[in-house]
Amino acid sequence: MRETNHAVIVDAIRIPIGRRKGVYSDTRSEHLLTHVIKGLVERAGLSQNSVDDVIVGCVTQNQEQGNNIGRIATLMSGLDQSTPSMTLNRKCISSQHAIHQAAQSILSEDHDIVIAAGIENMTRHPMGSDKVEEPKELTDLYEIVPQGESAERIAEIWGLNRNEMDEYSLRSHQLADQATKNGDFQNEILPIEVEVNGEKKNVTKDEGIRPETNVEKLGSLKTVFREDGKITPGNSSQISDGAAAVLVMSEEKAKELGLKPRAKIIARTLIGSDPTLMLTGPIEATKRVLKKANLTVEDIGYFECNEAFAPVVLSWMKELNVPLDKVNVRGGAIALGHPTGASGARLMTTLVNILEDKNAKYGLQVMCAGGGMSAATIIEKV
User: Fold this and answer.
1) Is 368 a catalytic residue?
2) Residue limits of the Thiolase N-terminal domain (predicted)?
3) N or C, which end of the chain is more exposed by having fewer CB within 10 Å?
4) Using CA of residue 15, residue 340, residue 272, residue 169, what is the dihedral sign?
5) On the CB side of 375, how many CA atoms lie within 13 Å of its CA?
């Protein structure tokens, strides 16, 4: 038995997030994923045969994102062939759950070093391209609606108006732009060289941030899911391309290798929620993970709540009395983008850096997922 039995985050990185039909349009998903796995291993100075497992979140597992892309990228990264890998799909929480599974394997003492990663090139693998018609047995039980319709209903239930959601969305762009200018993302972003229209390009910054936008521009956008609705492309997460990876170890192994942990995973939870109002799961998941950690909202220094749609975050904040100045302080998916399978690892990467930069003790990450699911994680800065 280990003397200490904690799962710790030793490092976390991501590539810049690309816009749909942007800088990664001509780049295969395996290349993006391989880049972050290889970069993570090199930054930590690990040997090729030291990683016990690689767990990858990916939502649209077809074509180049199929065939267990995690295993393919693990082999391409230069890790020893003895390193296994799996690819999992829990919709938008896929790579957050990969982090949970990494922690579980360490806590069970099955493994000492696990990489939890995520990949999604939504340009090359459009959202829903793997979808089939829902079976009648399901639709007889539940009303199955698009996620945007769920967001519309949440806005109605919590009394959120269009201007409130657009103002929140503007904040996301402003904070992400300021964080970029301040160099706040520098430690988490791993630049990548790709080909765009036959020319090499070194990508160093997130592509989706719109510093020039304002409430008037956001207010002029047409609604998407209802003619008289409130949900627009401007107050929704961006369809994006990206990859991220998190290095999880046992506390004992990190000490043995002379590596300083950056954060400790102290609580995690995964729940199912109403599949029609499928985006409300973060409310209950947050309550449960706080209870597990014996903490309150007031104890948390900073929150990363995925900006799938503005009303998801706003309703969550209202229900739990979470102060705005603690939430997504470097912008979120509305500005940075939401490459679905990669977003869980991306949010964790950002949260680790925020806790360090602002010298805060606890951070909480929470996300909703299609079909009515949510995951929440609490970490403690080491």
Assistant:
1) yes
2) 8-252
3) N
4) positive
5) 21
Strands 302-305 vs 362-369: parallel, antiparallel or unpaired: parallel
Helix (H, G, I), strand (E, B) or coil at 375: strand
Burial 259-294 (b: 16+ CB within 10 A, else e): bebbbbbbbbbbbebebebbbbbbbbbbbbbbeebe
Q: Of the listed 58, 92, 97, 125, which one is catalytic? A: 92
Active-site residue (options: 97, 125, 305, 368): 368
How far, rounded to the nearest angstrom, does the alpha carbon of residue 371 sit from its chain's CA centroid?
A: 17
- The DSSP annotation for 90-114 comes to BTBTHHHHHHHHHHHHHHTTS-SEE
What does DSSP say about strands 373-381 and 263-272: parallel, antiparallel, or unpaired? antiparallel
Neighbours of 119 (CB within 10 A): 36
pTM score of the predicted model:
0.97
Burial per residue of 302-326, b for 16 or more beta-carbon CB atoms within 10 angstroms, e otherwise: bbbbbbbbbbbbbbbbeebebeeeb
Q: 189, 13 in Cβ contact below 8 A?
A: yes
pLDDT digit string, tens, across residues 37-88? 999 999 999 999 999 999 999 999 999 999 999 999 999 999 999 999 999 9
Task: Specify whether the CB–CB gap between 304 and 364 falls below 8 A.
Answer: yes
Asked whether 30 and 63 are in contact (CB, 8 A), the reply is no
